[in-house]
Specification:
The complex is a heterodimer of chains A (415) and B (492). In chain A, helix 2 crosses helix 3, helix 4 packs across helix 6 and helix 7 (236-250) crosses helix 8. In chain A, helix 7 (236-250) links the parallel strand 7 (223-229) and strand 8 (254-259). Chain A has 415 residues and is an alpha/beta fold. Chain A is built from 16 helices and ten strands. Chain B is α/β, with parallel strands linked by helices and 492 residues long. The termini of chain B are far apart. In chain B, 40% of the residues lie in helices and 13% in strands. Chain B has four domains: 14-142, no CATH class; 148-215, no CATH class; 223-279, no CATH class; 291-491, Uracil-DNA Glycosylase, subunit E, CATH 3.40.470.10. Chain B contains 16 helices and 14 strands. A five-stranded mixed β-sheet of chain B has the order 3-4-5-6-7, covered by helices on one side. In chain B, helix 2 (84-93) crosses helix 4, helix 3 (101-114) crosses helix 4 and helix 12 packs across helix 13 (423-431). Classes of the chains: A alpha/beta (415), B alpha/beta (492). Chains A and B meet through helix 1, strand 1, strand 2, strand 3 and helix 2 of A and helix 4, strand 3, helix 5, helix 6 and helix 7 of B.
Amino acid sequence: MAQAPIIERLAILADAAKYDASCASSGTSKRTSKDGAGIGSTEGMGICHAYAPDGRCISLLKILLTNHCVFDCHYCINRKSSNVVRAKFTPQEVVDLTLSFYRRNYIEGLFLSSGIVKSSNHTMEQLVEVARILREEHDFRGYIHLKTIPEADPGLVAQAGLYADRVSINVELPTDAGLVRLAPDKSARQIEGAMGEVREAIAENKDARKRFRHAPRFAPAGQSTQMIVGADAASDADIVGKASRLYDDFRLRRVYYSAFSPIPDASAVLPLKRPPLIREHRLYQSDWLMRFYGYAPGEVMQATGADGMLPLDIDPKLAWALNFRERFPVDVNRAPREALLRVPGLGVRAVGALIAARRQRTLRLDDVAKLTVSVAKVRPFLITADWRPTLLTDRADLRRLLTPRSEEQLELFAA
Amino acid sequence: MTSAFREPRIDEAYCVTLAEPDDFEGWRDYARRLVMAEVPPDRVIWDAPDGLGGSSGGDLFATNGSDKRLPVPAANTPQPRASRDFVTLAKKAILHSDPARFALLYRLLWRLQGNPRVLEDRADSDVRRIEELARTVRRDSHKMHAFVRFRVVEEEGGADHYVAWFEPEHHIVRANAGFFVNRFTNMRWSILTPRGSLHWDGETLREGPPAQRGDAPEGDPAEDLWKRYYASIFNPARLKIGAMLKEMPKRYWKNMPEAALIPDLIAGAQAREAAMVAAGEREEAPRPATLPAITDALDACRRCPIGSLDNRAVAGEGPRDALLMIVGEQPGDQEDRAGRPFVGPAGQLLDAHLIDAGIERGAAYVTNAVKHFKFTQQSTPVSRGPGKRRLHQSPTAKEIDICRWWLEGERELVKPRVVLALGASAARSLLGKTVSVQKERGRPLALADGSELWITTHPSYLLRLDDAARASEEQRFAADLRAVALRVAELA
């Protein structure tokens, strides 16, 4: 079959890949090409080389090897029964594109995924082959993220980890029932089994590197996963619970959320009303609370309403604080870090600055104002040398006072 | 280099001119000597060239440069102290284009001698300023790493030379050289900026004078691919222009080839999203709540193209509380004419087998996965007489999935305990995926609503087989039906 020109196939296979939220190129080992024959470096911190009008960072060349697929997952634009135009790349074509973009400083590396063609193993072999050519034939030292296929042979997944900085397997849906209904060819047990194997491989590799400094690295940027939000009936509490279990069980670096968005030629089984993007945003905020603010998953769930959903009009940290007003106000000059981190409007950096500054002097409201984005937002929850919020935390209208006005919310919806 | 200490312009003030706008070493040397000589910050005027190739501010004082007035520290004066944090911050902040940066750094160094922990007081205005400068510089550096775009020029001898034009806001070019050397070690490249240029030949780094945009090449063959990628990876269903602008401010756009596409992408986005939603708008309508209402609504269904053919909807029939639901593929020519399911040749064969198996058809709810007859017109040979023959066409997976909405409505209302799917289309409609009938037949499969699904072949399949094969397949069909009959009897 004659192939379309590469630029047309690039358009199809990038379009097909854009529903994967992750574009991170961070968290891997530091490398340069100074002692190598090829190109590429990694800094630890990722670089976003461009931003699309959807506000997403473009860090990697994110494409599919092919959008042919024998699976029929209803939320996926590439499912077997969809009418999208199909295309495929050869591994060499992907390698050439990656290097061509990398040399011009367009990208940090490659994020390669694929529809399932012929068999899971065949597809996985092709993905690994791309990474192998890049690493072995071109001594490419940029970032590689490989989406691995849970049904593929564990030996292939292990190989992928040796070439890639990060490997990921998507759990796809927060509930098993959702998976059964919307991704009938996938099995939750198989997905989690594969994630477990990757976790083991990463742990073993860490151990090996403690003893042998030159042991080859296995997925130094760890593994991540993605959940689709709004395509099934899962509540925010379900999703937070699932995410925290995934973090614990599989030592994931990140759980990505992707608000289900309308796709061309959508399956008839899917809800067509898209969940508000703000819901995805609130879930990421709750993720942050668990990862950086010391909240237990159960505590994040306490921020949800009776229907298990996080409020859309205020962030989950504020929602939690409003539910636990007896924990406030906290004294800026005395409270431990953990207590300050719970104050709505205080970020990790602001808390660090407050703690450093209070060693120098007793902090007044003025000082707090200099170190935070909005003193008006934090004031009801804080005590300083010259400020005490009298009964403010008991006010019934506190939520209304602190809820952003509607035009600010529109910014988040960013129409 | 002549010393930067000059005749004081005002009584007792010292003017210091640094060699370069990012000359941290120079600043440190002079600052150290000034602190040791106990010259307070308000008596030092700092200056440096602006790095843009124009006349430096220092020229104003250039005539009487001399270090005769260099204050001499008293013997045994200890070296000034500065924490590592301060040095790290200062190395960044000094790259800022704010002319007051040298004075700020000196003032902080001066204060550090009295209070070594000054930097910890983040509410202090000098501390906040140095952090702000450093942060801005870090950001500008980061954006340089991100937004430099190389274009290829072929050199004599055929080697590729990668050249970029970039306009940084601060004096970061020299400080950023290492990043590009580490990353593109085995390439020949140049980065041209109005604040100076960098050239790497694969082995050594050279610095050059400020350049102009015209010195850089105009285009690159890979840019069309890159722009196509940029346009394709963008999801029009989630426009967030504010988030983009925050991270990629407009002032960088002019040197990024892909940025030229942004206005059109934004303009087209809403239309593209609206089209996607409209294409599937149908699901928004609530489903009719009774079987007669479903029957009525079916005829007007145009959710898929089959409904637009010259045909009529054939609804299911049977008791509202049937224990058994029988699902076929779609009405055929005769069913379409009669408006009832399973009345053609396949229906007659089914009826015969149902009787043999002891299933009363009238007690079962009989329906199809797809409610309209899908066919192609075949212009008939004259001998066949008037009219055209309508040839059965199988529904696509997508059409089955669309029509599944109706079957789900029927299942919700009838609530059968056992569902018998005849053929692969019916099985797909009930399971949401395509399965092999031969593999799945003969045993119950659990459905989400608690009922059980039995799958067997479609009777029209039996009709197409030759005699020998048909006999054995009919036996299996009969066996499947008997199993279902047994199960229904158990549940009754």
